[in-house]
TrEMBL record:
PANTHER family: HISTIDINOL-PHOSPHATE AMINOTRANSFERASE (PTHR42885:SF2), HISTIDINOL-PHOSPHATE AMINOTRANSFERASE-RELATED (PTHR42885). It catalyses: L-histidinol phosphate + 2-oxoglutarate = 3-(imidazol-4-yl)-2-oxopropyl phosphate + L-glutamate. Homodimer. The keyword Amino-acid biosynthesis applies. This is Histidinol-phosphate aminotransferase. Belongs to the class-II pyridoxal-phosphate-dependent aminotransferase family. Histidinol-phosphate aminotransferase subfamily. It comes from Celerinatantimonas yamalensis. Its EC number is 2.6.1.9. InterPro entries: Aminotrans_II_pyridoxalP_BS, Aminotransferase_I/II_large, HisP_aminotrans, PyrdxlP-dep_Trfase, PyrdxlP-dep_Trfase_major, PyrdxlP-dep_Trfase_small. Keywords: Amino-acid biosynthesis, Aminotransferase, Coiled coil, Histidine biosynthesis, Pyridoxal phosphate, Transferase.
């Protein structure tokens, strides 16, 4: 098509990120997108939608700063963490000149956003335990180094002592971007305390997971005030719609207890699910369980068989080092029980053994 050829060459050649919604599926149990299983009936505050929203709504910024125990000038609100990734690349990387580093297997949007802007992507292999190779990252020449913690899909957490060494090695050379989309499920591993020590550490956060607001699209960049000021030059003029800002402020100020209860319940369900998986002979390996999901390597390909039962999971078997791996989001107790029953039946049928 002639209009397709008008697009930039890198866009013509780009393979878009395959989100859970793009991939789709058919079923009655959806455990493929790492969403919260509960749909909270949040109140809808009165709003005047004839007016443009604040560029960075002060109440929202203050609420998140208080929640994260940092100052408001260290916070930028974005349309989900995805916009934050995109924004960092557009702000700090010259197309055709600069590079970003990712540590696959990891979240796919780091590479997609870079490729969209003609920025080179360097894939730094992780070690045998799927942890980042900090020594190699310390020597690499790039503008942005993305590290997801807990990592999606493997669940690996960042080593905070090694992060400090890496930040020092890359001082005045690169920003170390720690994506903490799932950090509420492993709060002890957060790098938030390092923001005051290292001006080249940047943290990404979201309300999509633990706060059960995936549909609202509200995320945050946390970092040095100078980084926030640079990003503020590039972000859209009205990034956070008024209803989203009001809703986000509400959950950050008056519903923190509910979020913590949700996290505790999901963590308990995740632990119970993992313990039940450990005894199944068809399960070859269980990855770290630190977010609201768990990655499982089966001895035989399972995805199609489970999908036929109306259970939609996330298939990673086409990714390097993740052969026969399926990611399961932690749903409600009934969803997890039904999924476990389907997996147990699959194990019994394929392993020739009775799965207790």
């Amino acid at each position: 098509m002639a209009t397709t050829q008008l697009a930039r060459q890198c866009v013509q050649q780009l393979t878009p990120y395959q989100s859970a919604r793009r991939i789709g599926g058919h079923g009655h149990i959806w455990l493929n997108a790492n969403e919260s299983p509960d749909n909270i009936d949040y109140p809808n505050p009165e709003q005047r939608l004839n007016r443009y929203p604040e560029f960075q709504p002060p109440e929202l910024i203050s609420a998140y700063a208080n929640y994260a125990n940092i100052t408001p000038d260290q916070v930028l609100a974005t349309r989900g963490a995805d916009e934050a990734i995109d924004l960092l690349i557009r702000t700090y990387c010259e197309p055709g000149q600069d590079r970003v580093v990712i540590n696959p297997p990891t979240y796919g949007m780091y590479a997609i956003s870079a490729q969209t802007f003609g920025v080179e992507v360097v894939e730094q292999p992780v070690d045998v335990n799927f942890d980042p190779d900090y020594a190699a990252l310390a020597k690499i020449d790039a503008k942005l180094i993305f590290i997801c913690s807990p990592n999606n899909p493997t669940g690996n957490l960042i080593d905070l002592a090694k992060l400090e060494v890496l930040a020092l090695a890359q001082q005045d050379k690169a920003l170390i971007v720690v994506d903490e989309a799932y950090i509420e499920f492993s709060a002890q591993a957060s790098a938030i305390s390092r923001l005051s020590q290292f001006d080249n550490i940047v943290i990404l956060r979201t309300l999509s997971k633990a706060f059960a607001l995936a549909g609202a699209r509200c995320g945050f960049v946390l970092g040095n005030a100078a980084v926030i000021q640079c990003l503020s030059k590039v972000i859209a003029p009205y990034p956070i719609p008024t209803p989203v800002a009001k809703l986000a402020e509400l959950v950050l100020t008056r519903q923190l207890a509910s979020m913590k209860q949700r996290v505790e319940a999901l963590n308990q369900q995740r632990l119970a699910f993992k313990q039940q998986l450990e005894v199944l002979p068809g399960v070859e390996y269980l990855f770290n369980a630190t977010g609201n999901f768990i990655l499982i390597r089966f001895k035989q390909e399972l995805f199609s068989a489970i999908a036929e039962k109306g259970i939609v999971l996330r298939n990673f078997t086409d990714k390097a080092r993740l052969e026969r791996c399926i990611r399961v989001s932690i749903g409600n107790p009934q969803e997890m029980a039904t999924t476990l029953e389907a997996i147990r039946a699959f194990c019994q049928a394929t392993c020739g053994e009775i799965c207790l």
